[in-house]
Design goal:
This protein is an alpha/beta fold. It has 18 helices and ten strands. The strands form two sheets. It has a seven-stranded mixed sheet with strand order 3-2-1-4-8-6-9, sandwiched between helices. A three-stranded mixed sheet has the order 5-10-7. Strand 1, helix 3 and strand 2 form a beta-alpha-beta unit. Helix 10 packs across helix 11. It is globular, with a radius of gyration of 26 Å.
Length: 603
């Protein structure tokens, strides 16, 4: 594999140092600009505090922008393998389920098996459905639908189902239990979520790649979001298809031998996983103790610690997942990730971990505490007038003319433009690159792709204060010792009424209103600058409800809508047939939940 796909050695070190250096330069520049702005009325301690908060926040934003820049200037390349070489190893596809709709989930298994059969490949591939379902009625339907799956796909000896009586450790414990009991029968395990779909050819390609590299312990794909219906979900879907591949390309260039694991749509070498990835419970009680929640990052770090290569191959297509349909469901899932990532503070110092693995843990923690720095900066800015002495226009005694200090407003404006640029410019550059290289045709053409980019930027700007409010609350809940548990994620129709939106966000409205009122009385000069934050918070109930409604616009079109992927079309046909054959009982309350997978689309 060429160094442009995954650089190593001195080239990798130089690239990482360049990325960190550029991020530090942007952060230091923001720090200096703000200090210069603060000097206009005399530099105070609070100015230095705000400058430090800007420094940290800008460092974080710049790191994401630098990843995009690396992704924009490099291209993925596939490893050199023989695509026609026979596959020697035995693979099991693991499908953990927890109170899922078995018709929907098991029909995905049928679609993937049919997609594999269509390739004509005779590889030895089994499917294991690992149920942690607690609802006995759903479990009974699982047994019924599994029997139908085996019969329809002639799956005796290839399809397996088992339900754990004790779901200790959630998904990580479910997979660990299978690896411990049955892992020795398989060379490789493809780990999915209940909503995952993969093309048969993609599965075979992953097996060939892991067989061709004896040191490869885990191979991660970049899943694309499909079947989005609401405005919120379509924005996430477009972001995952249009922007995420570039950010993932940048990540792939920086990963070296310590790539990411997002918990799903990835293949592992079972021996490596069994030897490396045992996860004992942490001392103490949740949220910081107990079972490791965000186990995927930890498992990737443990594989790397044992010397196994962990790799993201961002050139692989045909890997799909589904996402939440509204902001509230997204916030519920994000609450679990927040607790899991903050829990990594207990793991980051574990002996033997590679330096980049520790850095990845630090990034994950920073992803959730970054809003606290912005919150601290805003609070300090609103309170600053209370600590600043009134201006002295006659500093020289007996001098008859007042002295007006020079305005540093240009520096403040330049700083604001620079910070917003770190958020906006990478996406605009991605749209320009897509137009130049012809990729925009898959998204409706150059005009539609650019309009979709602008629409996504506008949508994300509106919803960002609401999402940041939820993320900030999650951090405070974890820091106060509140365990969020493993709540269910709803699939299907995620439409919310205005009343439901208000119930879910009244506290955001209250915080937004209080912030604007305090700003008006304490720092009226900041009111205009805080409106882009405060107004969306005031409108949170409407934004939540409006964004959960079905989208009818031609914007944010993705390739999977123009040309339906073969495995998705297969699943649609099978699901329609099975839904008619096995209608859900009227009194069956199915509470579907996605497992702990994540991807850059959600970062």
């Amino acid at each position: 594999m060429g160094w442009l796909a995954h650089p190593r050695g001195a080239v990798l070190i130089a690239l990482r140092m360049l990325a960190l250096g550029l991020s530090a330069l942007a952060g230091f520049g923001a720090f200096v600009l703000f200090l210069q702005f603060g000097q206009a009325d005399g530099l105070q301690t609070l100015d230095v505090v705000r400058a430090v908060l800007i420094l940290i926040s800008t460092l974080w934003l710049a790191w994401g922008a630098v990843q995009a820049l690396i992704g924009l200037t490099t291209s993925p390349s596939a490893p050199r393998i023989n695509p026609s070489a026979p596959i020697k190893g035995t693979t099991v596809v693991l499908v953990p389920v927890y109170n899922e709709d078995p018709v929907s989930t098991f029909s995905r298994v049928a679609a993937m098996d049919a997609s594999l059969a269509a390739t004509g490949e005779t590889a030895n591939i089994h499917f294991a459905i690992l149920s942690d379902t607690r609802n006995d009625e759903i479990a009974a339907r699982e047994t019924l639908i599994f029997a139908h799956l085996v019969e329809e796909r002639d799956g005796i000896g290839r399809f397996f189902y088992r339900r754990r009586t004790n779901n200790v450790g959630k998904k990580a414990g479910n997979i660990e239990d299978f690896i411990t009991r049955s892992g020795a029968a398989y060379d490789y395990a493809l780990i999915l979520d209940a909503d995952s779909l993969m093309e048969g050819e993609t599965i075979l390609q992953m097996i060939r790649r892991i067989e061709a590299e004896p040191t490869l312990g885990l191979l991660q794909t970049l899943p694309r979001v499909i079947r989005a219906r609401s405005r919120f979900a379509r924005a996430m879907q477009f972001s995952a298809s249009f922007f995420s591949p570039v950010f993932a390309r940048g990540l792939a260039m920086l990963q070296g031998r310590t790539g990411p694991f997002w918990g799903h749509n990835a293949i592992v070498r079972t021996r490596a996983f069994a030897e490396s990835c045992g996860l004992p419970a942490l001392r103490g009680t949740p949220p910081f103790g107990g079972h490791v929640m965000s186990h995927d990052y930890v498992e990737a770090a443990l594989l790397a610690r044992k010397g196994w290569l962990v790799r993201l191959d961002d050139d692989l297509e045909g890997s799909f997942e589904e996402g939440p349909e509204n902001i509230v469901d997204h916030a519920k899932r994000d609450r679990r990730w927040c607790q899991g990532n903050l829990q990594h503070a207990r793991i980051i110092g574990a002996p033997g971990l590679r330096g980049w693995s520790r850095f990845v843990f630090a990034q994950g923690i920073m992803a959730y505490i970054a809003p606290l720095f912005w919150l601290g900066f805003l609070a300090a800015s609103i309170a600053a007038p209370l600590f600043v002495p009134p201006p002295d226009y006659f500093p020289e005694p007996y001098w008859p003319f007042p002295y007006f200090p020079p305005s540093e407003a240009s520096k403040a404006i330049g700083l604001a433009i620079g910070i917003f640029g770190l958020l906006l410019v990478p996406k605009l550059l991605i749209a320009a690159r897509a137009a130049l290289l012809g990729h925009a045709r898959e998204f409706g053409g150059t005009a539609i792709a650019f309009a979709s980019t602008v629409a996504e930027l506008a949508f994300s700007s509106l919803t960002a204060p609401v999402l940041l409010a939820y993320a900030t609350r999650s951090v405070f809940q974890v820091m106060m010792g509140r365990d969020g548990g493993w709540p269910t994620n709803n699939r299907g129709d995620g439409r919310l009424s205005l009343t439901e939106g208000f119930v879910a966000s009244w506290w955001i409205v209250s915080i937004g209103a209080a912030g604007l009122v305090l700003t008006y009385f304490l720092a009226p000069g900041l009111l205009f600058w805080l409106l882009p934050v405060g107004l969306p918070m005031l409108a949170a109930p409407w934004l939540i409800s409006w964004s959960s409604q079905p989208a009818h616009s031609n914007l944010m079109r993705v390739p999977s809508e123009t040309t339906v992927p073969p495995v998705v079309a297969l699943h649609d046909r099978i699901l329609t047939r099975w839904d008619n054959a096995f209608p859900a009982p009227d009194d069956a309350r199915v509470e579907p939940t996605s497992a702990s997978g994540r991807s850059p689309a959600n970062a």
